[in-house]
């Protein structure tokens, strides 16, 4: 069985599925809440769950670092955040651990789990990841830093400067680009010259790996290798996960203006949740019953999280003025 | 005359100029098929084709830099920054290049480009989709900076910007986009860059402002009229070159001045206006020049409680005017 | 007490802080073996080794971004921009990231970094090796901005900057580097960020300025003393946070104020200072606040005739003071 | 004979040598003038002549465009500039065709020859080249654009954004990186991850070619192919020329602090002038006599240029204020 060959226990394989499902269901909930007028904005991980959970499982969540991007709900959950954390952020409540309600959802940051605070301008975090890795090198630590962005964002100069810097200093950074075929409305062929992000690794003397982003085990394999290279002091790796954004760019987007429904339906057939569920069923790690139980548990979790977040307090207006500088 | 929204005036000005001059083209993220995330380029793709309504990769420095190259060649590019907040990666190209091309080449080269960018808050855009960035550019000789407040001004000024032989930053207040409607003549009129506009005549207190704050100031003036306070509202429309004459005239009208902007107080353009008044109209003043602006915190937070606290509104402006009137 | 040059004080402050705190490290272009193109890091490479005195690739965005990542991790990086003019590619990292990390994370993360940059002209550096860039940052809440004028202030302020828990931009006037010498105590003193300094007491006219212009103002004051004009010179030292109290006190001393900077007039920091005085010290003023600054042209040209025309000097300052005195 | 195989006539082969020699002698003259205190600054093409002249000969100087960098004296001469133009610029005289004495030497720009005006911040011009090529595509022209930078500068985000943009739109841009082993003091291995700039082409779906930068014919071959690809509409090419900077970075640099004299002497053995001269001698295209005559002609030319430039007028101080905007 593939997961065992990769060194994953059956429990881990099921746990991956659970995280993928938790991310999907939490995400779906935010769309419902948005359509009900309860939260102003949704940015989604749907279509990225396998890439994120696969990558997260390759990390040592006790010591590795993460500089994520806005779709990384799955990743931050593996690192330690919960559906409740996510919903507090979606509702912009004071208890939001990322920003105290100051930032939009998807702008992660959690000191508890070494998830660096992020912003909206894309790809800046790839450079921060490099800086964290350099600091780790100065301190002779053996953690790695995983950092992510989309394929559109990957064209920003910052990623290249970061890859070059990390390459020169052989820093343990994993640059993971989640290629979901679109940057809002702009498709891959108008965005990425040559069509492959992975092909850019060679230009910086690092491996550039392209993997099926709908297969959590393949992503796990690629990221695990990158993690090991990093820990051995062999430097950074570029990993490109290929999948598809199953929903509009955000709750403000209307993707019917730039892609056909057929294309979306076609992509849904490769939905990682569906495929990986089948893998687990095929290998007897999941049954219809145990799956239903997982779903039920998750529903309870997401319900409770929604309830808690909805009732939680907004930050007091006076908070506006705090923490421009150290106080 | 047609009544249209602020954003429709943006689109109309571009359409007319593209019809008029085949050198004009538009480039930016999602400006093509999607017609822009705010729909400012709606319809242009189908009318002018993908070469003149160009969906670029997600790289602001390249958007600006490509526009600069094309402008130097002889084209009249209109580059869209999806949000003003995302102009930051393009600053080197705008400040080091566009602003200095004519000067450094001793008038042998020029850079007739327009950079359009939606700025400002009040739309739950949080820290990175709400910023006012004009102050970063108002001190850079070589750039013209336009910040219209009404559909009429948008059309006339955007046409002037496109026809201008030097780089113009055209900042569109995104809250005005659909909220502000007004009459827009069908004819091919232009409004000169560098001319302010009295949006309301008054005798007690002068408000000098621009963008969305013009509307808030007008609403405040309405409120105060009932209490017998007569407010003069000067809409700067263009920040650089500043219409100093109009500023000094407006000061002389009332002797009491409130400079208002949504941008942070410290280092905002209001300081420049206030300094000019203090230097050149000192003896016209019946009270110290007052500034009312956003607080000195990094940007507008997401949570509704915080956003409300941050942003100016007619009441806050009315309060400041009243204080001045009573001075 | 040792007499040393301005740049020697820069080096000394870094050396002492690196000895004192192993978290401090330096990074930038040519800062290592070469000791910096101005020799500001001279000797640090041999004393602290290449990991703590890091020669980076020629990528300012990565220099800033790596420093940000390392600072968020817990290091205290000092990033050198080879010339202030070349900070432009790093602006997204500085404004969108460094300045906002504490605020956006609700105080959970911070960014204790220093960005050092030589600025200013008068050294035949032409358009791109002469610029004053402070105005681009003075309106960005979350950044502290220091602009010392003497070796004594350099040492005390740079130490404070390195120990500060927030990002500090430390602008060193490159003409001061070897020209300005002064006494620097051997002990480990610091000067608080945010405190201005009266560099000369006087009763007729107050000059408020910073950097190299402090020396020109002092020379102008000497000249004018012979004619019986007594000049008060306030050196702001820190632009943000501004020492408002000291400014208002200096205004009250004479009632006549000249604000001076080398940077262009329009949009320069002088406007902010002048606006504050106009608002808060209106009734102390015996004459309008005057500003004297570089002309509103893109930057200092190369040719000696043009450079001389552009740049302020003691005579130009003396002339403006005299006019104010005679007002 | 190699040059004939490449389609170059004997006259052209000799002409290349003449240009290489002219560039070298003009460059040497500026060092003498600098050491004599007559000009403030030198930035050198020594070691780059073969790369530049080889590339220049592959262009159609009647229609192709150039966005050069500061070392490109050889290239701008092939395009049409003269030793006198260069010296006027070195002396910062009003007649300097690049900038009227406003910019440092090496900041080329000449509308007559389609040489775009350049700045100091490195690599911005690679994006402009892309914009010019896009404009050419809009106008259905068949010119190509050659743009150059150093290997250190090649790491700037701007080059990557430009290559991606040009790659997506299959624009006729030749990105030529002159790898001279150093960026001021920082050697290749601390600068360029992986050590090869050419290897980066593949990441953008374009050929990445590495050639001996000391052989003008090899450079000609590579750039010629790139030009033909470009004209055929097949898109951009990345060309890396490998040579060595034979002199310090600039007249402000002291290269003894970071590289051994032995290394420099070793490199001088591969000096392209020396090698290519030998090639011409070996094939009977040059004799000691004809060479002496070329040298004598060039000496006369450089003497006259020096003389003219030295006597030429500086710009009038009033020029400082001109051409911020169109007048
Ligand atoms: C510097 C910058 N420019 C523009 C934006 C607006 N924006 C947000 S997401 C996005 C598309 C990103 O596409 P991609 O990188 O492919 O990631 P995906 O959303 O597809 O996962 C854009 C243009 C931004 N956030 N930052
Ligand atoms: C953005 C920017 N940063 C720094 C500098 C200062 N600088 C000028 S040339 C140079 C080194 C360039 O090295 P390389 O690109 O290899 O070109 P070379 O000089 O070797 O030909 C540096 C750091 C600059 N001009 N622009
Ligand atoms: Mg995408
Ligand atoms: Mg080099």
Automatic annotation (TrEMBL), chains A, D:
Keywords: Oxidoreductase, Thiamine pyrophosphate. InterPro entries: Alpha-ketoacid_DH_E1_comp, DH_E1, THDP-binding. It catalyses: N(6)-[(R)-lipoyl]-L-lysyl-[protein] + 3-methyl-2-oxobutanoate + H(+) = N(6)-[(R)-S(8)-2-methylpropanoyldihydrolipoyl]-L-lysyl-[protein] + CO2. Its EC number is 1.2.4.4. It is an enzyme of class 1 (oxidoreductase). One of its GO terms (molecular function) is branched-chain 2-oxo acid dehydrogenase activity. Residues 17-317 form the Dehydrogenase E1 component domain. Its cofactor is thiamine diphosphate. The keyword Oxidoreductase applies. GO terms for biological process: branched-chain amino acid catabolic process. It holds the Pfam family E1_dh. Belongs to the BCKDHA family. The branched-chain alpha-keto dehydrogenase complex catalyzes the overall conversion of alpha-keto acids to acyl-CoA and CO(2). It contains multiple copies of three enzymatic components: branched-chain alpha-keto acid decarboxylase (E1), lipoamide acyltransferase (E2) and lipoamide dehydrogenase (E3). This is 2-oxoisovalerate dehydrogenase subunit alpha. It comes from Croceifilum oryzae. The lineage of its organism: Bacteria, Bacillati, Bacillota, Bacilli, Bacillales.
Automatic annotation (TrEMBL), chains B, C:
Pfam families: Transket_pyr, Transketolase_C. GO terms for molecular function: branched-chain 2-oxo acid dehydrogenase activity. The keyword Protease does not apply. It comes from the Bacteria. The keyword Oxidoreductase applies. Gene3D superfamilies: 3.40.50.920, 3.40.50.970. Its EC number is 1.2.4.4. Its cofactor is thiamine diphosphate. InterPro entries: THDP-binding (IPR029061), Transketo_C/PFOR_II (IPR009014), Transketolase-like_Pyr-bd (IPR005475), Transketolase_C (IPR033248). Keywords: Oxidoreductase, Thiamine pyrophosphate. Residues 4-179 form the Transketolase-like pyrimidine-binding domain. This is 2-oxoisovalerate dehydrogenase E1 component beta subunit.
């Amino acid at each position: 069985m593939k997961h065992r060959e990769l060194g994953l226990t059956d429990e881990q394989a099921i746990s991956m599925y659970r995280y993928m499902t938790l991310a999907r269901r939490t995400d779906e909930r935010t769309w419902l809440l948005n359509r009900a007028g309860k939260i102003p904005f949704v940015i989604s991980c749907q279509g990225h769950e396998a890439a994120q959970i696969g990558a997260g499982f390759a990390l040592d969540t006790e010591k590795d670092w993460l500089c994520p991007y806005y779709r990384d709900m799955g990743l931050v959950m593996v690192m330690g955040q919960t559906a409740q954390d996510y919903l507090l952020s979606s509702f912009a409540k004071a208890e939001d651990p990322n920003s105290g309600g100051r930032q939009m959802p998807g702008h992660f940051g959690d000191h508890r789990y070494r998830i660096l605070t992020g912003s909206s301008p894309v790809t800046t975090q790839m450079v921060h990841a490099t800086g964290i890795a350099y600091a780790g090198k100065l301190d002779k630590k053996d953690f790695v830093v995983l950092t992510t962005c989309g394929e559109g964002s990957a064209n920003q100069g910052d990623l290249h400067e970061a890859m070059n810097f990390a390459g020169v200093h052989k820093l343990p950074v994993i640059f993971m680009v989640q290629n979901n075929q679109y940057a809002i409305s702009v498709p891959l062929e108008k965005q990425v010259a040559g069509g492959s992000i992975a092909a850019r690794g060679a230009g910086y003397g690092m491996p550039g790996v392209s993997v099926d982003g709908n297969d959590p085990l393949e992503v796990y394999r690629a990221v695990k290798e990158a993690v090991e290279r990093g820990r051995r002091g062999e430097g950074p790796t570029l990993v490109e996960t290929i999948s598809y954004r199953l929903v509009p760019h955000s709750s403000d987007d209307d993707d019917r203006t730039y892609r056909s429904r057929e294309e979306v339906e076609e992509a849904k057939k490769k939905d990682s949740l569906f495929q990986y569920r089948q893998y687990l069923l095929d290998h007897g790690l999941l049954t219809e019953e145990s799956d239903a139980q997982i779903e039920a548990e998750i529903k309870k979790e997401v319900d409770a999280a929604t309830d808690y977040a909805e009732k939680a307090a907004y930050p007091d207006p006076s908070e506006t003025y705090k923490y421009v500088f150290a106080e | 005359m047609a009544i249209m929204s602020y954003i429709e005036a943006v689109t109309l000005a571009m359409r007319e100029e593209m019809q008029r001059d085949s050198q004009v083209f538009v480039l930016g993220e999602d400006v093509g098929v999607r017609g822009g995330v705010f729909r400012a380029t709606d319809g242009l793709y189908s009318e002018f084709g993908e070469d003149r309504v160009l969906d670029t990769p997600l790289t602001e420095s390249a958007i600006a830099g490509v526009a600069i190259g094309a402008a130097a060649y002889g084209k009249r590019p209109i580059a869209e920054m999806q949000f003003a907040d995302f102009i930051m990666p393009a600053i080197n190209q705008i400040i080091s290049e566009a602003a200095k091309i004519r000067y450094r080449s001793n008038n042998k080269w020029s850079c007739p480009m327009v950079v359009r960018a939606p700025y400002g808050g009040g739309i739950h855009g949080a820290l990175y989709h709400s910023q006012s960035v004009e102050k970063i550019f108002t001190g850079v000789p070589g750039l013209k900076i336009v910040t219209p407040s009404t559909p009429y001004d948008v059309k006339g000024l955007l046409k002037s910007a496109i026809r201008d032989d030097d780089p113009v930053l055209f900042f569109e207040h995104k809250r005005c986009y659909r909220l502000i409607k007004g009459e827009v003549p069908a004819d091919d009129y232009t409004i000169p860059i560098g001319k302010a506009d009295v949006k309301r005549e008054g005798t007690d207190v002068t408000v000098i402002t621009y963008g969305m704050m013009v509307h808030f100031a007008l609403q405040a003036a309405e409120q105060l009229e009932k209490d017998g306070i007569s407010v003069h509202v000067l809409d700067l429309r263009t920040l650089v070159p500043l219409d100093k004459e109009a500023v000094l005239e407006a000061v002389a009208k009332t002797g009491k001045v409130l400079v208002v902007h949504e941008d942070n107080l410290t280092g905002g353009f209001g300081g420049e206006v206030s300094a000019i008044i203090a230097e050149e109209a000192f003896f016209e003043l019946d009270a110290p020049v007052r500034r009312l602006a956003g607080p000195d915190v990094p940007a507008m937070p997401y949570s509704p409680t915080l956003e409300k606290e941050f942003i100016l509104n007619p009441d806050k402006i009315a309060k400041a005017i009243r204080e001045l009137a009573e001075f």
